[in-house]
Specification:
It is a single chain. The protein is mainly β. It has a single domain, classed as Porin, CATH 2.40.160.20. It has one helix and nine strands; from the N terminus they run H-E-E-E-E-E-E-E-E-E. It has an eight-stranded antiparallel beta barrel with strand order 1-2-3-4-5-6-8-9. A hairpin with a 5-residue loop joins strand 5 and strand 6. The longest helix is centred in the first third of the chain and has 17 residues.
């Protein structure tokens, strides 16, 4: 994963050098609609009374989202979450805030609640997640931005399992 992060940071910098000045869309009153796709490896921490296999899992996540800029450079939003791995599917709802730090570079904080359902058997667990993201809005035109991002996520399950992962993802946003 560390070998992927350095090229990703260089990609973010290159977007910054080549990006058009679209900061007029990062202002109060603008709607933000889009979503993210990410692929990651999560490490799981199990309680001592549970089996600890597998300890890691590859996770595919899809997050459609909508938000609204309540001030210049700050947006709040809601989203849905679907994650899947070898043994579980997770469905949830998320809320969070995005703040543009410098021009098109942003940070996000998100919390989510959901249900983790086993693909086989009847095991289910409630899920609480917190997510931090750093990314860049590379505007393709006046309204559409491609958003590479680095994501750290931690999931707490009602079954006392904790899952953590560092992710490289990409989002697509429409600014209206």
């Amino acid at each position: 994963m560390k070998k992927i992060i350095l090229p990703f940071i260089l990609l973010l910098i290159s977007f910054g050098i080549q990006a058009q000045d679209q900061t007029t869309k990062i202002r109060k009153g603008t709607w933000l609609i889009g979503g993210d796709l990410s692929f990651s490896t999560f490490t799981f921490q199990y309680p001592s009374n549970m089996s600890s296999s597998p300890n890691t899992s590859t996770v595919l996540t899809l997050n459609p989202q909508a938000g609204y800029f309540i001030g210049n450079r700050i947006a709040v939003g809601l989203g849905l979450n679907y994650s899947t791995n070898q043994t579980f599917d997770t469905y949830g709802i998320q809320t969070g805030a995005r703040f543009y730090l410098i021009k098109h570079l942003f940070a996000e904080g998100i919390i989510g609640f959901g249900k983790n359902v086993a693909r086989e058997g009847d095991f289910q667990s409630d899920t609480f997640s917190w997510i931090t993201t750093v990314g860049y809005s590379a505007f393709l035109n006046e309204h559409v931005a491609l958003e590479p991002r680095i994501i750290y996520q931690e999931n707490h399950y009602s079954s006392n399992i904790i899952g953590r992962g560092l992710t490289i993802g990409v989002g697509l946003r429409v600014f209206l």
